[in-house]
Design goal:
The chain has five helices and no strands. By secondary structure, it is mainly alpha-helical. It has two domains: about 50 residues, no CATH class; about 45 residues, no CATH class.
């Protein structure tokens, strides 16, 4: 990794910004050499190699949280969904999809 940050103007002069979609499609088409996006989204684009995440100090983490409200109309259904979302099968699906679970895997 570089020890100093490049000037924003230098980066922006070479950047290809897309308003939506997968940045890696620009790599696959040859329009650019590097794509920066969530790993889970990079993994879906054929014809590219995902080299890995940024170091932790440069990461921006996206959290997904779930909760059951005390007055939920279907608390049992909500509890079943929470159990499914925190199951070992779900943890494997998250990992296979390029996501990192904050939960310990239940065996």
């Amino acid at each position: 990794m570089p020890t100093r940050k490049p000037a924003p103007d230098a980066v922006n002069a070479r950047a290809v910004v897309i308003p939506m979609g997968f940045t890696a499609e620009k790599v696959a088409s040859g329009e650019t050499e590097l794509a920066i996006q969530q790993i889970s989204e990079l993994m879906t684009v054929p014809g590219i190699d995902v080299v890995g995440p940024f170091p932790p100090e440069l990461q921006t983490v996206t959290r997904f949280d779930a909760a059951i409200f005390t007055d939920a109309k279907n608390a049992a259904g909500a509890a079943a969904l929470m159990a499914a979302l925190t199951s070992p099968a779900a943890a494997k699906a998250y990992a296979d999809g390029g996501l990192v679970s904050r939960l310990a895997i239940k065996e």
